[in-house]
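User: tokens in, sequence out, please.
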């Protein structure tokens, strides 16, 4: 893949992709990284003990493309193992790295998305966490969701389509022409993190990290020029029985005191 000449001097930036089953999402996630990343990078795939054999097949296909620098298969599906994986490798990470969950699919933004994020980090030494703007077209209307799942209780239905997500209100116009805007409304599925800042504040979920970074004097934000689709917004079609209560409890173990 041809590298953008202006980005060659940056050195490889690590991209950590986390996956648990849903191989179709993984294929789209990795394909977008392959197509739209011209800045030097290393992609580390972390498989959270998937039990769908197609995940390994998708992984192998992108190894053949030469996209993946490393593949780590966890012994169990535990977010603390993923966090430990990142912190154990911190000494080998670039000054900033990217974390992507496999249900996030990058959109073509013209200029390389990774270069845009890296440039923002270079311009502002206090910027510790940078997310990308969501493609709001995948949000499902509540009335349509009710028609699709009439027997689902209201709280579960609202959770399934993220009816109360702050990202529904994310307005690029409200950024007033800025490249980066706040509140962060953490988009934990795709974010660039400053390695040393993360080392200082420790781990946690995206919302918890946002709070810890800002308390430590760092800034966070969303970059308007980098966009992604969140495939889980389509759960009402693809996985209508998906339980966000279980998912939230799973992720919140990262914020629980030990």
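Assistant: Sequence out:
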């Amino acid at each position: 893949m041809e590298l953008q000449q202006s980005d060659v001097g940056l050195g490889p930036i690590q991209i950590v992709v986390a996956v648990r089953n849903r191989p179709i999402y993984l294929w789209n996630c990795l394909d977008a990284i392959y197509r739209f990343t011209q800045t030097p990078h290393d992609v580390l795939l972390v498989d959270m003990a998937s039990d769908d054999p197609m995940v390994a097949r998708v992984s192998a296909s992108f190894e053949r493309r030469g996209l993946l620098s490393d593949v780590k298969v966890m012994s169990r599906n535990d977010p603390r193992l993923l966090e430990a994986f990142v912190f154990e490798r911190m000494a080998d990470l670039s000054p900033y790295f990217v974390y992507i969950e496999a249900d996030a699919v990058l959109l073509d933004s013209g200029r390389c998305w990774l270069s845009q994020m890296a440039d923002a980090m270079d311009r502002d030494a206090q910027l510790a966490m940078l997310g990308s703007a969501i493609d709001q077209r995948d949000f499902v209307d509540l009335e349509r969701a009710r028609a699709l799942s009439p027997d689902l209780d209201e709280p579960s239905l609202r959770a399934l389509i993220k009816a109360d997500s702050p990202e529904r209100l994310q307005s690029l116009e409200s950024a007033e022409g800025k490249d980066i805007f706040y509140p962060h409304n953490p988009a934990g599925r795709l974010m660039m993190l400053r390695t040393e800042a993360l080392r200082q504040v420790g781990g946690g979920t995206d919302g918890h990290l946002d709070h810890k970074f800002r308390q430590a004097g760092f800034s966070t934000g969303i970059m308007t020029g980098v966009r992604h689709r969140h495939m889980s917004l389509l759960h009402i079609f693809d996985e209508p029985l998906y339980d966000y209560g279980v998912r939230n409890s799973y992720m919140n173990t990262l914020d629980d005191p030990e």
